[in-house]
From TrEMBL:
Keywords: Membrane, Transmembrane, Transmembrane helix. InterPro entries: YczE/YyaS-like. The keyword Transmembrane helix applies. It comes from Jeotgalibaca ciconiae. Signal peptide: none annotated. It comes from the Bacteria. This is YitT family protein. Coiled coil: none annotated. The keyword Transmembrane applies. The chain crosses the membrane at residues 7-25, 37-66, 73-93, 105-125, 160-182.
Length: 209
């Protein structure tokens, strides 16, 4: 039962994360730092966003291994492959269901996307299953340099913005809003849901007779 609950927590959080990414990308006002890298690679290499994500994942996980010297980081590749396959589907779904041809709609997508990403990350890391490549980088930086999640994510995202700037020569202003808001949100939500989720996963149900 515990394994089943962990899987439920993981899947719920992961799907919320992918939905958040899709909301941000569809808004066109900006996205998370690493999604900006994938979009830049996608545009230059004429690949889908999912394929660009897949290619980037291997490089990021290599960095995680360099930081931690732990081969277990490559378990995150499984999650990254699933994310790569799903992102194109979610993008299609969001663009189909929520036409983004007005400013209010785009603002809604942008704001909601940030919140969904923070909730998704905060939930699925509680399951302690392999993270995706970006969150693996965040946790690897945290472990290597003894930093909290907020500071670790800020370092990783700042690196991604620099890479995007080199590739695309421009950064949407909304990306900086995501950069400064997502990390505190992840830390804030994680601090408050870790205990309830842990209780949910480890609680034993007793039958009454």
């Amino acid at each position: 039962m515990t394994k089943l609950k962990r899987m439920v927590v993981y899947l719920v959080g992961f799907n919320i994360l992918i939905a958040g990414i899709s909301f941000l990308v569809t808004s066109t006002y900006g996205q998370s730092a690493w999604d900006g890298v994938y979009l830049a690679v996608s545009n230059i290499a004429l690949l889908s966003v999912g394929m660009a994500t897949f290619i980037s994942a291997a490089s990021i996980l290599a960095v995680c291994y360099i930081l931690t010297k732990d081969w277990h980081v490559f378990l995150s590749f499984v999650t990254s492959v699933v994310q790569s396959l799903l992102i194109d589907f979610y993008l299609f779904l969001v663009k189909t269901l929520i036409p983004s041809d007005s400013i209010p709609t785009r603002l809604f997508l942008f704001t909601t996307g940030i919140i969904l990403m923070a909730i998704g990350i905060s939930i699925y890391i509680q399951a302690k299953y392999p993270t995706n490549h970006v969150d693996c980088l965040m946790l690897s930086i945290s472990k290597r340099f003894k930093l909290n999640l907020r500071k670790s994510k800020l370092i990783g995202d700042s690196s991604a913005i620099l890479i995007t700037l080199i590739i695309a020569n421009r950064i949407p202003i909304g990306t900086f809003i995501v950069l400064v808001s997502l990390s505190p949100l992840v830390q804030f939500i994680s601090d408050r849901i870790s205990k309830p989720i842990s209780n949910f996963i480890n609680r034993t149900n007793y039958s009454r007779y």
